[in-house]
Amino acid sequence: MKKLTSLTDDEIRTLASTGGLPPDIADHMIENVVGGFTFPLGIATNFRINGRDYLVPMALEEPSVVAAASNAAKMARVKGGFTVTNTGPVMIGQIQVVNVPKPETAKSKLLARKSDILKKANDQDPMLVSLGGGAKDLNAKVLSTIKGPMVITELIVNTGDAMGANAVNTMAEAVAPMVEEITGGRVLLRIISNLADRRLVRASAVFDKSAVGGEDVVDGIVLAYAFAEADPYRCATHNKGIMNGVVAVGIACGQDIRALEAGAHSYASRSGKYKPLTTWEKNKEGDLVGELEMPMAVGLVGGAAKTHPTARADIKTLGVKTATELAEVMGAVGLAQNFAALRALASEGIQRGHMKLHARNVAISAGATEKLVDIVAKKMIEERKIRFDRAKELVAELSGSKKRAA
Ligand code: MEV
Fold first, then answer.
1. Which residues of the chain register pLDDT less than 50?
2. Which of 63, 189, 233, 254 is the most interior residue, by most CB within 10 Å?
3. How far is the CA of 42 from the centre of ligand 1 (A)?
4. Confidence (pLDDT) at 302
5. Which residues are CB-neighbours of 41 under 8 A, at least 6 positions away?
C-alpha cells in the first residue's frame, strides 16, 4: 500500500483497522480487503411498534437522524405508536429468453409446464421448502423491447427469513435449461428483481396534534406532503429522508442497502411518475395520520446479517425474530424519519439542529480534542462561521491558552 499510495504509516494503520469485524471475516466477505470502515452506531429510542417496544440500532454518518427518529417515535407513542403489516417475504426471479420463434405460444407453454418448473426450482433448496418457503408461482410475459420481443419467466419465491437473492438466483439458473427447451429460445439473464413489490411493509401512525406542536404543524406537514406528491424534485428529497432511517437500520443489521434503495425508488415510480413512499393527512380530530408503503427485502439468515459480528449484536439488541419483523421495524423507522423531517422543515427548518452537530463535526475534523470540541463548536455557532478554517484557528488559539493555563 505504502509503495502505491502517498499514505503515511498512521493512515495505513487507520485503514487497516477493522473495528468490531475480525480481519479474517472481513477477508472472506469481499475481495482485495485492506481494512475496515466504521460508521458511528446510535440507538434510536421510544419506538413502539405493533404494541412492542424496540431499541433500534442505526449506523450512519449524518447528524440529527437518530435524535429525529427517537423524537418522532416519542410523539407517535402518545397515540399508541406504529402499526405495521407486511405482505410476506416474497421475491421475484426473472429469466430472460431471447430469439423465441413464437413468443405468445412459448408463454402459454411455460404456463402449462408451471408445476414442472416450480418442482425443478424447489429441488434446489429443500431446506427453504421444509420451512414453508420456496417457489410458489410462475408468471410468463412477452415484452416488446428495442431488440424485438422477449419472453420473461418469473419465479415467485417465498424466501422465508432470507433476503433471498442467493436462493432466487440459484433457482432461476437451475430452471433455465427447461425454460429454453419449452420456449425454443435462448436464455440470457437469470436474476432476482429488486423491485420487490410482493414484499411490502405498510406502516401507519397517528400523531396527536398537541404532541406535534398544534394544528398548524399538522397542516404544514400535509402541505409538505402535497409538495412532494406534485413534484419529483421535492419527492426525491422526501423519499431520501425516509431512506435515512431505513438505510441506517439496514446497515446496522447487515442488510443489502443497495437492494433496499433500488426497491424503494423503483416502487415509488411504479405509476410511471415518481411519488412519495408515504402519505400524510389530517383526520377529523385534527390529528396527523401518516402511512408508509414500500418494499423491504431484508433477511436474518445469510449475508452480513449472519457473518458480521456487529450486525448480529444489533439484531439481538433489536430483538427481532424473523425477517418480516425486521422489515416492519424498518418501515416504522422510515415513517418516523419522514415525519421528523417534514415537521422540522415545515417549522423552524432543519439547519438549527443540524448546525449544532455539524459544528461539532467540523471542530473534530479541525483537530479539536475532546475538551475543546464543544467550546469550538459553540464559538463558531455564535459567530455564525461554521467553517474548517475558523475551527482550525480556534483550535490553535484555545490549545495555546489551555497549555498556558496548565
Ligand atoms: C436530509 O438528510 C433529509 C431531508 O432533506 C429530508 C426531507 O427534506 O424531507 C431533511
1. none
2. 254
3. 19
4. 87
5. 57, 58, 59, 252, 310, 314
Backbone angles phi, psi at 46, to 5 degrees: 75, 5
Ligand 1, atom 4, lies closest to the CA of: 241
φ/ψ bin of 50: left (φ > 0), alpha (ψ from -120 to 50), beta (otherwise): left
Contacts of 232-239 spanning 24+ positions with Cβ under 8 A: 232/273, 232/274, 235/268, 235/274, 235/275, 235/276, 236/274, 238/276, 238/278, 238/338, 238/341, 238/342, 239/264, 239/265, 239/268, 239/276, 239/277
Number of C-beta neighbours around residue 44 at 10 A: 26
Cα 192 off chain centre by: 18
| 165-168 LR contacts (CB < 8 Å, sep 24+) | 165/91, 165/192, 165/256, 165/259, 166/302, 167/124, 167/125, 167/128, 167/133, 168/91, 168/92, 168/93, 168/192
The DSSP secondary structure of 260-280, one letter per residue, reads HHHHHHHHHTTTSS---SEEE
Residue 62 designated active-site: yes
> Closest ligand 1 atom to the C-alpha of 238?
9
- Specify the pLDDT at position 147: 97
Q: What is the pLDDT of residue 171?
A: 98
Residue partners of 145: CB distance under 8 A and separation at least 6? none
Q: How many CB atoms lie within 10 A of CB 342?
A: 26
Q: What separation in Å is there between the alpha carbon of 327 and the centre of ligand 1?
A: 22
Number of other residues whose CB lies within 10 A of the CB of residue 379: 18
Alpha-carbon distance 306 to 207, whole Å? 36
How many CA atoms are closer than 13 Å to the CA of 69, on its beta-carbon side? 34
Cβ 345 under 6 angstroms from ligand 1: yes
Quote the CA–CA distance of 108 and 103 in Å, as a whole number.
Answer: 9
- Contact in structure between 307 and 29 (CB atoms under 8 Å): yes
Give, as one character, the DSSP assignment of residue 321.
Answer: -
